[in-house]
Structure formats: structure tokens, C-alpha cells
Amino acid sequence: MNLDQIAGIAHEPSGTPAGVVVLTHGAGGNRDSPLLQRLCDEWAARGWLAVRYNLPYRRRRPKGPPSGSAATDRAGIVEAIQVCRGLTDGPLIAGGHSYGGRQTSMVVAAGEASVDVLTLFSYPVHPPGKPERPRTEHLPDITVPTVLTHGTSDPFGTPAELRDAAALISAPTEIVEITGARHDLGSKTLDVPALAVDAAVRLLQGQKA
After folding, report:
1. Pick from 1, 103, 94, 115: nearest CA to 52
2. To which H or E segment does residue 185 belong?
3. Quick one: pLDDT at residue 209?
4. Cα–Cα distances in Å, from 10 out to 22, 37, 47, 51, 132?
5. CB of 140 within 8 A of CB of 131?
6. Quick check: 208 pLDDT over 90?
7. Quick check: 111 and 105 in contact, CB under 8 A?
8. Domain named KANL3/Tex30 alpha/beta hydrolase-like: which ranges (predicted)?
9. Does the CA dihedral 134-197-192-8 come out positive or negative?
């Protein structure tokens, strides 16, 4: 399948997909981050079509932090969700790591794209060392089930701060705490992709119940 329009790479399951998962990267990363690759492998192994894609700023230049308008990146997220929804039937799950997850959550909060579950990795509750600058003002407008996978040593938000942020979301939430992990969610003891996918599937099934 051709995903050049969104600079995307698809991980295809064997057989008909149960649905589609659309994931993007953090501020300094790209679609090839180890976390995104492992997440998409996990989803594909469970029968889902999983797509990891580059945000518009990353399509413009291969390295460096986000440049230009975040609104342009959000428009790219809307486009990616629309493209991926056309690839298969079934539910659509969207999200991303850090900046990419935050921008996706803003798209969903604004009602600019329809998703069945939101899955956020290392949500940046605030800039490191600056808890007085929370990035949570849009969270009450999120009305879809949301998974937040977060390291207990993440400088962008403590577990308590993340729980407070999740409580603002007006839909079922599940927090997946990765003990000892920092912002990259690296763990030598926990299977982060499996835990995150388990949580998303539980929320999706709860929605259908």
C-alpha cells in the first residue's frame, strides 16, 4: 500500500485486519523510532494494520525539533487519520509519542478527526522542570477512551501529575505505568508494547459492551 502522502510505513497482519492503528513520533524523532516500530509490530501480530508516519515538520527536514506551526502538524495528523481510515474496515486507534501524542490529542479534542481509542505515550504534562506550565487545557474536551503509557521517572510529568491530567478526560482512561522508565519508555523488565496494546484493546471492548 502506498502511504507516501503521509510518509507512512504499514505493518500488515496476516489475514483481514481487525482495524487500523495510526501512530506518530515525538519532537526529536521520526517514524523509525524503536518504540513506534515495536508498537506497530505488536499491533500487527494481533491482527491489526498498524501505520507509523512522519509529521509534516519531519517531512520537511530529517532532523531537529518541530519547526513552523503546530497547526500544520495537526493538519497532517487529520490527513493521516483520514488516509488510514480508508485502508480497512473496523475501529481506528490513533496516537503517538510525546509531542506527536499531544498534537493528536488536540486534534481529537477539537473534533477534527474521529477515532475510537486514543493511545498516548509519555504525554508531556508539562515541560521538564516547569510544572507551573501544564499542557492539559484541552484534555476535558476529549470524549474517547484514552490510554496513557508513562514512565515513572519521566521528567515531563510524575505519576501523580499524569493521574491528575487523566482525570480531566471526560471518557474512560487507563494508565499504564512503566516502572523506572524515562521519556523514551525504555524498560529491561516490562514489555511496553504488549502492555499498551492490552490496555487499548480493553478500552475498545469496554466501549462495545
Report:
1. 94
2. none
3. 59
4. 9, 10, 13, 4, 39
5. no
6. no
7. no
8. 20-187
9. negative
Percent of the chain with pLDDT over 90: 94
Gap between the terminal Cα atoms of the chain = 33
Q: What's the mean pLDDT in 93-101?
A: 98
Closest to 76 (Cα-Cα) out of 101, 52, 57: 57
The pLDDT confidence band at residue 138, using thresholds 50, 70 and 90, is very high
- What burial class does residue 120 get, using C-beta atoms within 10 Å of its C-beta: 0-12 exposed, 13-18 middle, 19+ buried? buried
When pLDDT is averaged across residues 61-80 and rounded to a whole number, the result is 93
Q: What value, to the nearest 5°, has the Cα angle with vertex 53 and ends 48 and 54?
A: 170
Per-chain mean pLDDT for the chain:
96
Label residue 75 left, alpha or beta by phi (over 0 means left) and psi (-120 to 50 means alpha): alpha
Return the CATH number of 4-207, one of 3.40.50.1820, 2.60.120.10, 3.90.550.10, 3.30.70.360: 3.40.50.1820
The three cell numbers of residue 208 are: 462495545
Burial 139-173 (b: 16+ CB within 10 A, else e): beebebbbbbbbbeebebbbeebbbebbeebeeeb
